[in-house]
Inverse folding.
């Protein structure tokens, strides 16, 4: 884990850190099992843990974070210049909550909707291959 990302995770409240670590794990699981997605780079972008496809550059960056100003939710962010959130809304509009054209908002006090998130993560990590 990148040192900056490690420090960021360590700064989260314990109950949030567990969720963030699971979301991070999902990103790596999906990357490892998705055709065309190679090595991921983990870094901080805008002070948020970010995951980008390094070789090949098959997808768009996925960022995840929890913010004190919205303590009841965790966000998974993609570039607002993509059509991903619009596509996610059409697929999971009844199951997931969204913010504008950049984020999926996840309640901090419930289980992660892993099935839906796996599909969303896969689409982001293959965005340049599939568009």
């Amino acid at each position: 884990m990148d040192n900056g990302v490690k420090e960021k995770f360590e700064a989260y409240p314990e109950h949030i850190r567990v969720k963030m670590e699971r979301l991070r794990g999902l990103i790596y699981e999906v990357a490892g099992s998705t055709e065309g997605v190679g090595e991921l780079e983990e870094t901080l972008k805008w002070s948020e843990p970010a995951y980008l496809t390094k070789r090949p550059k098959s997808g768009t960056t996925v960022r995840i974070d929890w913010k004190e100003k919205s303590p009841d939710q965790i966000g998974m962010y993609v570039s607002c210049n993509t059509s991903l959130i619009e596509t996610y809304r059409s697929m999971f509009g009844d199951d997931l909550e969204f913010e504008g054209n950049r984020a999926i908002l996840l309640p901090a006090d419930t289980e992660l909707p892993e099935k839906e998130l796996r599909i969303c993560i896969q689409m982001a990590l293959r965005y340049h291959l599939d568009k």
Summary: The mean pLDDT is 94. The beta strands are 39-45, 48-55, 62-67, 70-77, 97-99, 103-107. The longest strand covers residues 48-55. The CA atoms of residues 24 and 64 lie 8 Å apart.
